[in-house]
C-alpha cells in the first residue's frame, strides 16, 4: 500500500543560521521512484530526512502522506523504511534478528514474523544466512540485509540514502540493477539519494537535480538530459558542449556530434580515448576552444589530424563557442 | 506533542544529575568555601560578653551558687590568670611581670590589687568572679546552658574561638617559611616527575606500537601493572630494597660485600621520592600515550618515508608533532599526580623534605586545622591548571586527527639501533616494576624484613595481635572488599547512564555535568576526602543525616570518585557509534526506552564492564580520598597498609597488599570472562 | 598474491584493476617498498631495488586516504620532500608554487588539511608527491572517496599531469570505467593473480576470459558454438571478428552491439526501457526466456514495456572460452 508524498513550503535551517534547504514544494506520486541528485552539501540528504521524519522542517513547512499531515509525526510513527549509506545494521543481533526487528517492535506474532523474515531472505538471495553475524558478511550482503530490514515491515515509503556509495564499482552496478528490479516489483513509493548521475538515470522515474539547497530541475531523465534548465543541470547529468548556431546558443551532447576527416576542417584532434561503448574525442580549434565528441570505435581520427565537426548534418564554423562542462 | 516524547529523557537526566550534584559538586564546593573560614581566639571583650550572656541564662539561684563555686581558684595559676583578666576588664593593665613563676606573680598581684584606687578596686572586685569563669570554667558553663544555646554559640563559648571570612589560609604558603619550602619542594618534584616520566612512557608506547620490542602485549601488561597497586606499594618496595635494612643496601652491600654502611647510604630522601614517583606514574602516562599512538594513521609515516625523510626525520617531523596533544595531556596528568602524592614523600623523605600534600595530611590528622588543609588543597589545583592553560596555547590552530585509516601501523620495521635502545629501556622499566612486585610478595612471607629472614604465613592470619591490632590481620581486607564490591556496579551503571544522558539526551548544562563527573579524576584525592567530611558531617546542620563514621560514606566516596572511567569509556563508545544505527531503530518503530535497551546499551557493555572494574580495583587501593573517612567501625585495608608501612611493619603491609592484588586479579579475570562471553558479537561495531 | 610479474615501461600509464582484496594494492605497495615480497624481485630501470627503502626508489605515492600531515599547511606538505633533502628555502618555495599551480591550488597554500575539501586535499596529496620530481608516480585508489562528478574531472587531470611531466604512472582502482578512460595499459587482477593485461580497447573488445568480459564494461554472456567458422547463439548466426576454431564458447554481447531493426533476427518482448542519457537501455526477453540488453539511440525510439521489438547485431561480439 504505497502512498503519495507531498511537501509544502519545507525548508531547513541549521542552528548556526546556515541554510540547508530553502523552502520548497514537492509532489511524489504513489509508487514512483524519485531520485534526489546533486553534489555533496546540496541538501538532498536533508530533504530525505525531512520526508523520513528524522528532522523537522522550519516553521510553516508541511509534509503529507496521502493527504494526511504527518509533519508532527516522528519517524517511528510514519511507517517508512530507511536504508542508510553505512547500512547501520545492529551488531548485537544476527541477520534474522536485524531483518525481523521492525516486525518485533510492532508486535507481530512470532510465527508470522518468522515467515516474513524467511520471505525476505529468499527475496534478497540471502538464503541460509539468517543465523550469520553481521561482521561476517560482505559489503554487498550487508546492503541486502539493510534493504530486507527496511522492507520487511511493509512500509508505505522506502527511503534510500546513497546506499551504494560504500561499494566497489562492479558491486554497485550489480546491486543497482537488483534495487531497480526490487523497486519495480514492490511498486512502493521510493526516494533515492545519490551523487552519481548514471545511478540516477538507471533507477529514477523522475530525477530532482539539487544545488545549494534548491531543486534546480525536476523531471524525467530525458527532460534533464535534453532540456536542462540551466548550466548546472546540463553539466551534472552528462557532458555538454556549448555551441553558437545561427539559431542561437545551444547545449549539445557529445554523442550528437560527428567527425569527418578534412584538410580544411576547423578542428584538430587533441586526444581520442577509448571508453568502451564509444571513443571520446577531444577537439580544439585555432582559437583554443575545445569540444568533446563521442563517436563509435570505427576509423577514429588520430591525435593531430584535422577534422570537420558535424552537428545535425551541418559542419560547424570555427566561431562556434565551445565550453565542455 | 514534542514534550511528551522528551519526558522520559528529561526524567532520566534529572535522576542522574541529582546524585552528581549532591556527591561531587557539594563536597568540593564545601572545601572551596572552608578555606576562606579562619578561626581564631575571640578577643577578650567578646569572650566577656558571651560569658555574661551565658551566665544570664542560668536561673538566679543556680547562678549565684555557680559563681560562688567557680570563683574559687584551684591553683595559683588560675588565681593569677583570673586576676590579670579582671584587671584588664577593670581597665587597668596588670602591673606585674606576667612571665614570672606563678608563686611570684601571686604575691605581686595581691600587692597590685591592694594598691588600686578605690573606684578601680571596686570594678576589679566586681569583675573577678566573671573573669574566673570566663577563663577557666567556660566549658562547664557551656555544657550547663547547652540546650539554651544554638550549636554555633555553644561551640564558640566552649572553645573560645570565633570564625571570620578571610584569606589567611590562602596566604599561608607565601607567609609561612615552612609552607613556602613545602610548596617549592612539591613543585620541584612535580616538574621533575612529568619531565622524566613522559618521555619514558612515550618511548614505551612507541615501542609497543611500532614493533620496537618482541612481545608488545607483555610489555603493555607489565607497564600497566602499577595501576593495580595497593597504596605505597612502590615506596614500600623501594624501602625494602634500598632502605636502611634493605635487601640490596643492607643485606647485600653492607653485610655481604661490606661496601657501604646502609644507615648512611640509602634511598631515603629526594632520590627515593623521585624514583618512586616515576615508577608509580609511568602507567598513567603510558595509557594516554598508548591511546594517542593507537589512533595515528600509519600511512602518514609511510608518506614521509617515501618523500625522503629518514627514520629520525619522520619521527621529528611527523610522529612527534602528531603526538603533541597526547604529550600535553600526559605531562599535565603526571604533574598533577605528583603534586598531590603524599604517600611516597611521607614514607621516603619524612619531614626532612616537606611537601604540600603531606602538610595537608598533617594539618587534618594532627592539628585538625580543616581550614588550612582545605585552602592548601585548593591552592594545589593552581599549578596544574596553569600548566594546562599554558600548554593549550600550543598548536591551537592545528588539527591532529589524520582521518580515515586511523589505527594502522606502518609495516616497515624500526632500525636495529632503535630497537636495541627501546628494548633496553623496556627491560629496565619492566624489570623495575617486576622487582617491586616480587619484593612485596617476598615480604609478605618473611617474618621480619631486614631482620629475620625466615619464611612464615603469620602475616596472613585473619586477626592480628599486638600494637594496632585492630588493623592487623587480613580480616580488614574483607571490609574493603564489601565496600568496593558494593560501589563498583553502582558506579559503573551510574557512569554509563550519565554518559548516555550527556551524549543522547543532551539536556542544557550537559557540559557542566560532564565536567563535574570528571572532576574527581583531576582533583587530588585529599580534596574529595576532606570535602566528604565537611559536607556530610552535619549536612544542613542535621545530625540525623550525618554520614561520617558510617560505611555508606566510604561507598559513596569510592563510587563517585571513580565513576569517571565509566563515563569516559561510555562517552567514547557513544561518540564512535554510527548515529545511523539508532536512527534505523527509530525508523523501525522503536521508542526511546526500547532503543536504549535493545540497541544502545548492548553496545555499551564494554564500557560498563570497564567502569565497574575500575571502581572495584581503585576502591580496593585508593588511599588519599578515604584516609580521613575511616573510623573505628569501618576500616579500610589501604589505610591499614599505609600505617603499617609508615611504622616499618612491612610484613603486615605486604601481606595485605598480596591479598588485595589477588582479589584484583580475580575481578579482572571475571570481567575478562564476561567480556569474552558477549563481546565477540560486538566486534563489528564499525 | 601469487607469482605476479609485471613490467611498466618508461612514461607509461598502467592501471591495476580489480575488486577489493584482489591484491592490487599489495602489488602497488611492493613496488613502493612499503611491503616486502615473500619472494621475487623488484627492478627499477634495470637495477635491482628489492631491498631498497621507499625513499631510495625515486617514486611518488598518493594514498587513498591522502595521508596529509595534519599539523602542516598545504605549502609545508608539498614542500616536505624538498625540505628533508636540505634544499635551499628559496628554491623549495619556488618549486612549491610551481607544483601548486599545476594542480590549481595556488590560493590554498596557507590552509591546513582540515580546512580543505576532499578534492582539494587530493590535489595537495598529488602536488606533494610530484614536488620532488620523481620518475614514477604510484596512486592507490586516489579518487575513491570523492563524488562522481569530481572523480570524472580529477581523473582526466591526473592523466594530463603525468603526460605533461613525462612521468611513468602505476594506478590502482576498482572502477573499470576509470581504468579505461585514463590508462595506456590495464592489468586486470583477481585473487592475487593477473587475469589479463592489455590496452583498454583490447581489454574491452577482446577479453581473454569470462571474468574479464564481465568485469570490464557491460555484457550479457551467452552460450555459443562456432560451427564451421560461424558463431551460433540464440538460434542465429553472428558476425565473427577473428578466425577461431570450431567448438563451444561464450559470447560477450555488449549493449551497443545491437541495433533496432524491424527485420532483425532477434525478436522479443520489451521488459524495461531505461533512459541513460546518450542511450536508451532496453531489456528484451526472447521467446527462449533469455534476457539481453541493448543500447539504442534515445532520440527517436520509445519502446514501452510489453511491446514487441526486433534487433540485429551490428558488430562482432567477443568470444571467450567457457
Automatic annotation (TrEMBL), chain B:
Keywords: Membrane, Transmembrane, Transmembrane helix, Transport. The lineage of its organism: Bacteria, Pseudomonadati, Pseudomonadota, Alphaproteobacteria, Acetobacterales. PANTHER family: POLYGALACTURONAN_RHAMNOGALACTURONAN TRANSPORT SYSTEM PERMEASE PROTEIN YTEP, PROTEIN LPLB. It is a multi-pass membrane protein. It holds the Pfam family BPD_transp_1. Belongs to the binding-protein-dependent transport system permease family. Residues 183-391, 477-671 form the ABC transmembrane type-1 domain. It is found in: Cell membrane. The chain crosses the membrane at residues 187-209, 221-243, 267-289, 330-350, 370-391, 424-447, 481-501, 513-534, 546-570, 603-630, 650-674. This is Iron ABC transporter permease. The keyword Acyltransferase does not apply.
Amino acid at each position: 500500500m504505497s502512498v503519495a508524498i507531498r511537501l509544502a513550503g519545507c525548508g531547513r535551517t541549521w542552528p548556526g543560521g546556515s541554510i540547508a534547504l530553502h523552502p520548497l514544494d514537492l509532489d511524489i506520486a504513489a509508487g514512483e521512484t524519485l531520485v534526489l541528485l546533486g553534489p555533496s552539501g546540496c541538501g538532498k540528504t536533508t530533504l530525505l530526512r525531512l520526508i523520513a521524519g528524522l528532522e523537522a522542517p522550519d516553521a510553516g513547512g508541511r509534509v503529507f502522506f496521502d493527504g494526511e499531515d504527518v509533519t508532527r509525526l516522528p519517524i517511528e510513527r510514519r511507517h517508512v523504511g530507511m536504508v542508510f549509506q553505512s547500512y547501520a545494521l545492529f551488531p548485537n543481533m544476527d541477520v534474522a534478528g536485524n531483518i525481523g526487528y521492525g516486525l518485533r517492535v510492532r508486535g507481530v506474532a512470532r510465527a508470522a514474523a518468522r515467515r516474513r523474515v524467511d520471505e525476505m531472505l529468499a527475496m534478497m538471495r540471502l538464503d541460509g544466512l539468517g543465523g550469520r553475524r553481521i561482521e561476517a558478511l560482505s559489503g554487498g550482503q550487508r546492503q541486502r540485509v539493510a534493504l530486507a530490514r527496511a522492507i520487511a515491515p511493509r512500509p508505505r515509503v522506502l527511503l534510500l540514502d546513497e546506499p551504494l556509495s560504500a561499494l566497489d564499482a562492479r558491486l554497485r552496478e550489480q546491486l543497482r540493477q537488483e534495487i531497480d528490479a526490487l523497486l519495480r516489483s514492490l511498486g512502493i513509493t521510493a526516494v533515492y539519494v545519490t551523487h552519481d548521475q548514471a545511478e540516477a538515470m538507471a533507477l529514477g522515474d523522475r530525477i530532482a537535480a539539487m544545488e545549494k539547497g534548491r531543486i534546480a530541475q525536476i523531471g524525467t531523465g530525458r527532460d534533464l538530459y535534453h532540456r536542462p534548465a540551466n548550466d548546472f543541470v546540463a553539466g551534472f547529468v552528462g557532458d555538454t558542449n556549448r555551441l553558437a548556431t545561427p539559431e542561437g546558443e545551444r547545449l549539445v551532447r557529445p554523442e550528437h556530434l560527428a567527425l569527418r576527416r578534412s584538410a580544411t576542417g576547423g578542428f584538430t584532434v587533441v586526444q581520442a580515448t577509448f571508453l568502451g561503448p564509444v571513443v571520446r574525442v577531444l577537439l580544439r580549434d585555432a582559437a583554443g576552444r575545445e569540444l568533446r565528441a563521442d563517436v563509435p570505435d570505427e576509423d577514429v581520427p588520430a591525435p593531430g589530424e584535422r577534422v570537420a565537426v558535424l552537428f545535425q548534418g551541418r559542419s560547424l564554423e570555427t566561431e562556434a563557442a565551445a565550453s565542455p562542462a | 506533542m514534542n514534550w511528551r516524547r522528551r519526558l522520559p529523557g528529561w526524567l532520566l537526566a534529572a535522576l542522574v544529575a541529582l546524585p552528581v550534584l549532591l556527591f561531587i559538586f557539594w563536597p568540593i564546593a564545601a572545601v572551596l568555601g572552608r578555606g576562606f573560614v579562619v578561626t581564631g581566639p575571640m578577643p577578650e571583650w567578646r569572650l566577656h560578653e558571651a560569658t555574661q550572656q551565658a551566665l544570664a541564662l542560668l536561673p538566679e539561684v543556680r547562678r549565684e551558687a555557680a559563681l560562688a563555686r567557680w570563683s574559687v581558684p584551684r591553683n595559683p595559676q588560675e588565681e593569677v590568670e583570673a586576676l590579670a583578666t579582671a584587671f584588664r576588664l577593670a581597665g587597668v593593665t596588670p602591673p606585674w611581670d606576667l612571665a614570672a613563676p606563678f608563686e611570684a606573680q601571686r604575691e605581686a598581684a595581691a600587692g597590685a590589687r591592694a594598691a588600686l584606687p578605690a573606684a578601680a578596686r571596686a570594678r576589679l572586685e566586681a569583675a573577678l568572679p566573671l573573669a574566673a569563669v570566663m577563663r577557666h570554667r567556660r566549658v562547664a558553663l557551656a555544657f550547663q546552658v547547652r540546650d539554651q544555646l544554638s550549636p554555633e554559640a555553644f561551640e564558640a563559648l566552649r572553645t573560645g574561638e570565633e570564625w571570620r571570612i578571610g584569606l589567611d589560609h590562602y596566604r599561608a604558603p607565601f607567609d609561612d617559611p615552612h609552607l613556602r619550602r613545602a610548596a617549592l619542594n612539591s613543585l620541584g618534584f612535580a616538574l621533575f616527575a612529568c619531565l622524566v616520566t613522559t618521555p619514558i612512557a612515550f618511548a614505551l608506547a612507541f615501542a609497543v606500537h611500532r614493533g620496537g620490542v618482541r612481545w608488545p602485549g607483555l610489555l603493555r601488561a607489565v607497564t600497566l601493572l602499577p595501576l593495580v597497586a595497593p597504596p605505597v606499594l612502590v615506596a614500600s618496595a623501594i624501602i625494602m630494597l634500598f632502605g636502611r635494612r634493605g635487601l640490596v643496601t643492607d643485606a647485600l652491600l653492607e653485610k655481604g660485600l661490606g661496601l657501604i654502611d646502609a644507615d648512611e647510604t640509602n634511598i631515603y630522601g629526594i632520590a627515593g621520592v623521585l624514583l618512586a614517583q616515576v615508577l608509580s606514574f609511568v602507567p598513567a602516562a603510558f595509557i594516554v600515550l598508548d591511546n594517542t599512538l593507537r589512533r595515528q594513521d600509519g600511512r602518514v609515516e609511510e608518506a614521509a618515508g617515501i618523500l625522503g625523510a629518514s627514520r629520525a626525520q619522520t619521527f621529528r617531523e611527523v610522529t612527534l608533532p602528531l603526538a603533541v596533544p597526547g604529550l600535553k595531556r600526559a605531562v599535565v596528568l603526571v604533574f598533577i599526580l605528583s603534586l598531590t602524592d603524599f604517600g611516597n614523600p611521607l614514607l621516603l623523605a619524612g619531614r626532612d623534605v616537606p611537601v604540600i600534600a603531606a602538610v595537608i595530611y598533617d594539618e587534618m590528622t594532627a592539628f585538625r586545622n580543616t581550614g588550612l588543609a582545605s585552602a592548601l588543597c585548593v591552592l594545589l589545583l593552581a599549578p596544574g591548571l596553569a600548566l594546562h592553560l599554558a600548554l593549550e596555547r600550543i598548536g591551537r590552530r592545528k588539527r591532529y586527527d589524520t582521518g580515515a585509516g586511523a589505527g594502522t601501523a606502518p609495516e616497515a620495521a624500526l632500525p636495529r639501533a632503535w630497537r636495541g635502545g627501546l628494548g633496553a629501556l623496556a627491560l629496565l622499566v619492566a624489570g623495575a616494576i617486576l622487582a617491586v612486585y616480587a619484593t612485596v610478595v617476598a615480604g609478605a612471607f618473611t617474618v621480619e624484613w631486614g631482620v629475620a629472614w625466615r619464611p612464615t604465613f603469620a602475616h596472613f592470619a585473619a586477626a592480628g595481635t599486638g600494637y594496632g591490632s585492630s588493623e592487623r590481620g587480613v580480616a580488614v581486607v574483607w571490609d574493603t572488599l564489601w565496600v568496593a564490591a558494593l560501589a563498583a556496579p553502582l558506579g559503573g551503571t551510574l557512569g554509563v547512564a550519565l554518559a548516555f544522558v550527556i551524549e543522547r539526551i543532551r539536556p542544557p548544562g550537559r557540559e557542566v555535568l560532564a565536567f563535574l563527573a570528571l572532576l574527581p579524576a583531576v582533583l587530588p584525592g585529599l580534596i574529595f576526602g576532606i570535602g566528604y567530611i565537611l559536607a556530610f558531617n552535619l549536612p544542613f546542620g542535621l545530625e540525623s543525616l550525618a554520614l561520617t563514621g558510617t560505611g555508606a560514606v566510604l561507598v559513596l566516596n569510592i563510587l563517585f570518585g571513580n565513576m569517571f572511567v565509566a563515563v569516559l569509556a561510555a562517552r567514547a563508545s557513544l561518540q564512535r557509534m554510527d548515529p545511523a544505527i539508532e536512527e534505523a531503530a527509530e525508523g523501525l518503530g522503536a521508542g526511546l526506552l526500547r532503543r536504549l535497551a535493545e540497541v544502545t546499551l548492548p553496545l555499551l557493555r564494554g564500557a560498563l564492564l570497564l567502569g565497574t572494574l575500575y571502581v572495584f580495583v581503585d576502591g580496593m587501593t585508593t588511599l588519599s580520598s578515604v584516609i580521613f573517612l575511616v573510623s573505628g567501625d569501618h576500616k579500610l585495608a589501604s589505610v591499614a597498609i599505609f600505617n603499617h608501612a609508615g611504622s616499618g611493619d612491612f610484613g603486615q603491609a605486604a601481606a595485605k597488599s598480596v591479598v588485595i592484588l589477588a582479589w584484583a586479579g580475580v575481578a579482572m579475570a571475571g570481567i575478562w570472562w564476561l567480556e569474552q562471553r558477549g563481546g565477540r558479537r560486538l566486534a563489528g561495531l564499525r | 598474491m601469487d607469482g605476479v610479474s609485471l613490467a611498466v615501461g618508461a612514461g607509461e600509464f598502467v592501471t591495476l584493476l580489480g575488486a577489493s582484496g584482489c591484491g592490487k594494492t599489495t602489488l602497488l605497495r611492493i613496488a613502493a617498498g612499503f611491503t616486502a615480497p615473500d619472494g621475487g624481485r623488484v627492478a627499477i630501470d634495470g637495477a635491482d631495488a628489492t631491498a631498497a627503502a621507499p625513499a631510495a626508489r625515486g617514486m611518488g605515492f598518493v594514498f587513498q586516504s591522502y595521508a596529509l600531515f595534519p599539523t602542516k599547511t598545504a605549502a609545508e606538505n608539498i614542500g616536505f620532500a624538498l625540505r628533508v633533502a636540505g634544499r635551499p628555502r628559496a628554491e623549495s618555495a619556488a618549486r612549491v608554487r610551481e607544483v601548486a599551480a599545476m594542480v590549481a591550488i595556488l590560493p590554498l597554500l596557507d590552509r591546513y588539511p582540515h580546512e580543505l575539501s576532499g578534492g582539494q586535499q587530493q590535489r595537495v596529496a598529488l602536488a606533494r608527491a610530484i614536488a620532488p620530481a620523481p620518475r614514477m608516480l604510484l596512486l592507490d585508489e586516489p579518487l575513491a572517496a570523492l563524488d562522481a562528478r569530481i572523480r570524472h574531472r580529477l581523473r582526466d587531470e591526473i592523466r594530463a599531469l603525468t603526460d605533461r611531466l613525462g612521468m611513468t604512472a602505476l594506478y590502482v582502482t576498482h572502477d573499470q570505467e576509470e581504468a579505461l578512460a585514463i590508462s595506456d595499459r590495464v592489468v586486470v587482477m583477481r585473487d592475487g593473480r593477473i587475469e589479463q593485461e592489455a590496452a583498454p580497447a583490447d581489454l574491452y573488445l577482446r577479453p581473454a576470459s569470462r571474468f574479464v568480459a564481465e568485469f570490464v564494461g557491460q555484457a550479457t554472456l551467452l552460450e555459443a558454438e562456432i560451427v564451421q567458422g560461424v558463431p551460433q547463439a540464440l538460434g542465429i548466426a553472428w558476425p565473427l571478428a577473428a578466425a577461431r576454431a570450431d567448438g563451444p564458447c561464450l559470447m560477450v554481447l555488449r549493449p551497443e552491439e545491437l541495433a533496432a531493426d524491424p527485420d532483425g533476427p532477434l525478436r522479443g518482448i520489451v521488459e524495461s526501457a531505461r533512459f541513460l542519457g546518450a542511450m536508451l537501455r532496453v531489456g528484451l526477453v526472447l521467446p527462449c526466456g533469455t534476457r539481453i540488453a541493448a543500447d539504442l539511440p534515445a532520440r527517436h525510439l520509445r519502446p514501452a514495456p510489453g511491446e514487441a521489438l526486433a534487433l540485429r547485431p551490428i558488430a562482432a561480439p567477443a568470444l571467450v572460452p567457457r
